[in-house]
Write a structure and sequence with these properties.
The protein has helices at 2-7, 9-14, 51-63, 86-90, 104-109, 127-140, 155-160, 169-187, 246-255, 266-282, 304-315, 320-331, 356-359, 374-381, 394-408, 422-437, 452-457; strands at 21-27, 68-72, 115-121, 145-150, 196-199, 204-206, 214-217, 222-225, 238-242, 258-261, 291-300, 389-392, 412-415. By secondary structure, it is of the alpha/beta class. The protein has an eight-stranded parallel beta barrel with strand order 1-2-3-4-9-10-11-13, surrounded by five helices. Helix 9 (246-255) packs across helix 10 (266-282). The longest helix has 19 residues, at 169-187. The chain starts with a helix and ends in a 25-residue tail after the last helix. Residues 1-14 have low confidence and may be disordered. GO terms for molecular function: monooxygenase activity; oxidoreductase activity, acting on paired donors, with incorporation or reduction of molecular oxygen. This is Nitrilotriacetate monooxygenase component A/pristinamycin IIA synthase subunit A.
């Protein structure tokens, strides 16, 4: 967008087209962003508790050259709607939820190129425990692991682990910043590259003199240990982050390599992306090295008419209440309390703990959403959450993706589904060929066995870039103050 304003349309048209990066967006639950589709005979969401679902999905995504499977997660139910968890449970609105980490090894075993981005919170477990898990996953997948960093906000989740009140929003990000720095010390700074040096003649497997003990005494965490896992292919997993609140943007500009963003309009999203890039540049980072992925739900048909018919069929199974449960939980607004045509704003939020970047949507309208009312939300929330839904032939959906790339300055999309695996099958069989025809998507038969980070930055960039804050903690440069 900035290039259009400063150089004019002709210069923009002369620029080479940006390759679109696609991630599949799923969650280990029955009702992700389109609650109610479990009633649809074509939907297999209820089989996610079977390992075969994840194996088959991984094979499908690999066949389509999809960059990564991005797995959301949550640590508690949504109880804002009507002040109760009942409808969250009744409507299967992200309930029940199983652990997304468990199927990763099985999916990695049947794929070569597909990466995996797993959501995990900085709020509920010590950094050492998370460091061990992600180092293990990075080893087992050959470096195809990313971490979607979240700071948890649900009261129900904190109560589940024995804490009565969640940490205040901005303080959560301060805690997360220290959490990441502890992890960098473990992943980057504990082991020398040649610490693991098996020598049978000396009965020596690793050199203890080349494995540093990390002594960390901070505001939130205290640590005194060596990392227990030897360096994995990436050392630090590819770092995703979601959220564009002021505190979240500052955190993202410091730590994130890829950012998951969501908005109903590319024109609403672009200024937020531009701000994060500018903050990153002020920190000495290449602002273009941060890759932005927008949520996007395609409903595809071979023709526009077929796609519209598919959409009408999908609408038969929606759970409107399930959608309102999710939005009420995300925003802290109990939508059940308001008349259908009441204009909702951020002022209607009574919950201190919510997703501020989603709540901020209610302060901004657009041609796509001129008003935010319970009626509008009810129409939009049950298919694709509040994110954009594109309905049409591959050409129409590809046009819409190009518009988002152009107007919002995103690098790719986290593709939501309405039914699974059907929505993902349509992406692989219909959309990917159209994007390849336009020169917007990597061709089949590309290089194999790249790490998650190399797939974004190029072969050879397995570790953190030199301009990333985590590089300050690498073994050869890090000096700890004791």
């Amino acid at each position: 967008m900035a290039a259009i304003e400063s150089n004019g349309l002709n210069d923009q048209l002369s620029q080479p087209k940006k390759h679109i990066i696609l991630n599949a967006f799923d969650m280990s639950t029955v009702g992700h962003l389109s609650p109610g589709q479990w009633k649809n005979p074509k939907d297999q969401s209820a089989t996610k508790r079977s390992l075969q679902y994840w194996i088959d999905l991984a094979k499908l995504l690999e066949r389509g050259g999809i960059n990564a499977l991005f797995l959301a997660d949550t640590y508690g139910g949504y109880d804002t709607y009507e002040g109760s968890l009942d409808n969250c449970i009744r409507r299967a609105a992200q309930w029940p939820v199983t652990d997304p980490v468990i199927p990763i090894s099985a999916m990695a075993a049947v794929t070569k190129n597909l990466s995996f981005a797993i959501t995990a919170s900085t709020s509920f477990e010590p950094p050492f425990v998370l460091a061990k898990r992600f180092s293990t996953l990075d080893h087992l997948t050959g470096g195809r692991i990313g971490w979607n960093i979240v700071t948890s906000w649900k009261k129900a989740a904190f109560k589940a682990i024995g804490i009565d009140t969640p940490i205040e929003h901005d303080q959560r990000y301060q805690q997360a910043d220290e959490y990441l720095r502890v992890l960098y010390k473990l992943w980057e700074g504990s082991w020398a590259n040649d610490a693991l040096s098996p020598d049978p003649s000396k009965d020596t497997y690793a050199d203890p003199d080349k494995i540093r003990t990390i002594h960390h005494m901070g505001k939130y965490f205290t640590l005194d240990t060596k990392h227990i896992v030897d360096p994995s292919p990436q050392r630090t997993p590819l770092l995703f982050q979601a959220g564009t609140s002021p505190a979240g943007s500052e955190f993202a500009a410091t730590h994130a390599e890829a950012i998951f963003v969501s908005s109903h309009s590319p024109l609403v999203l672009q200024p937020k992306i531009d701000k994060i890039r500018k903050v990153a540049a002020s920190k000495g980072r290449d602002p273009r090295s941060i890759k932005f992925f927008a949520t996007f739900t395609p409903i595809l048909g071979r023709t526009d008419e077929e796609a519209r018919e598919k959409y009408q069929e999908l609408k038969k199974y929606v759970s409107t209440v399930g959608g309102l449960v999710l939005v009420s939980g995300w925003t802290g607004i109990d939508i059940s309390r308001y008349p259908l045509d009441h204009d909702l704003t951020a002022a209607d939020s009574t919950e201190e703990h919510k997703v501020r970047s989603l709540l901020d949507q209610f302060t901004v309208t657009s041609p796509e959403v001129p008003r935010w009312t319970p009626r509008v939300i009810a129409e939009r929330a049950s298919i694709g959450g509040l994110g954009p839904v594109a309905i049409g032939s591959p050409a129409v959906v590809a046009d819409e993706m190009e518009r988002w790339i152009r107007e919002a300055d995103v690098d790719g999309f986290n593709l939501g589904y309405v039914t699974t695996p059907g929505s993902f099958e349509d992406v692989v069989e219909l959309l990917v060929p159209e994007l390849r025809r336009r020169g917007l998507y990597a061709e089949e038969g590309g290089e194999e066995r790249l790490t998650a980070r190399e797939k974004l930055y190029g072969r050879g960039q397995k570790g953190l870039r030199e301009d990333h804050v985590g590089s300050r903690y690498k073994y050869e440069v890090y000096k700890e103050d004791i």
